[in-house]
Design a protein that fits this description.
- The chain has 180 residues and is an all-alpha fold.
- It is built from nine helices and no strands.
- It has one domain.
Amino acid sequence: MIAPIPGEATGLLGGYLYDHVSGTIYSTIGLTIGSYIAFSISRLFGRPFVDRFVSKATMARFEYLLHHKGAFLVFLLFLIPGLPKDALCYVLGLGHLSTMEFLVISGTGRLFGTALLTVSGDYIRHHQYYRLSILAGIAVIVVFLAMAYRDKIERLFRKLHVIEYRKRKKANRPQSTEKD
């Protein structure tokens, strides 16, 4: 599935049409359902199907997620604004995350961004443009910093992932017994 309306727009509209609490709840439910559908379709039809919707460059960026769980890393990727989350859901469907892990990670990972967008929509609805401009300024700074340090952040995520993988591998290694 490819979203006909981007998730960012639904969060903003949710805040405008409802309020920041209801809009966040409705948007999060809708985004989680859409993410689950993309994840499930990917899991059902496999790599040839995903290759139709996800560019080779995007697949290459997320390839390491297919070979290791890296649940914390995946959670952090859902927090990054502007990241192609639809493509990420397809890629994750090819990997090792369980459906429950995926739902928890994608739902909670998107919650922060959705809440910010919904509050923005609520500010627009109530003509609170001063508050909106402050919130937008903060968001622009955060996005700018994320873009400026994207490579460093991605390296950090990969290092954390490798550390987690090594710990898991060490924990699963059979213990050798010494004979006296």
